[in-house]
Amino acid sequence: MTQVGHDPKDSQIWYYNGTPAACTFVALDYVLPKFANFSVPDLVVTGPNYGTNLGGFVWTLSGTAGAAYAATNRGIPAIAISASNQEVPYFEVKNRTNPATWAAQASVKFVENFIATSPKNGPLLPLGYGVSVNLPVLTKKNQNPDFVQTRFTGNAHVNEAVLDKEKGTFTWANIKPYAAGVNACINGDCSLPGETYVVENGKASVSFYTVDYSAPSTEYTKSLIQRVASFVSSDK
């Protein structure tokens, strides 16, 4: 298979053999300018990924998140969608009664509703903002989950290394009890439920993110600024 190309039966489906973020860049800088009648999309949707990306720790490791983040950093609105289903190649999905199809349908429903509520003639998202959606386990009886506004922190997991003494190798596990660092509420509305809790209880989470990593202007931040003032200059 070549590194970049399109489905032999559908010229609107393109692939690139690279990381998810690289796929975003190849789409923006190669596929669209050369093969579409526009160069900058109104929205980039990454996923639905197989497997959720819940909490700030997993978010920073996620390829699905990285692909959306790449678009957001380029000033293009983006939505990252992660589902709870297992991996399955798209060419093996041949009916509508499977978790991958249900995840796709739930994703389309959310994206269409999100677009429908956007400002007229305005961007779908403010500059530097994006959306992370996580879908719960979907079944025949629960194909249309409720979408709940959430935050990244709250019941979020972080990993630890676990030694397999027989093999002499390491695997991973979620730290129990919950780690305090990944669940510290620093930005946003601390009254919102954590996305991990919401998805584990059968609903879909919707968390907003920004690309600005700077610490917010709080008393903690001010104390840090004062602490380093003797050896760190400020150009303000």
TrEMBL record:
InterPro entries: SurE, SurE-like_Pase/nucleotidase, SurE-like_sf. Coiled coil: none annotated. Transmembrane segments: none annotated. Keywords: Hydrolase, Metal-binding. Residues 9-143 form the Survival protein SurE-like phosphatase/nucleotidase domain. Belongs to the SurE nucleotidase family. This is 5'/3'-nucleotidase SurE. It comes from Fusarium oxysporum Fo47.
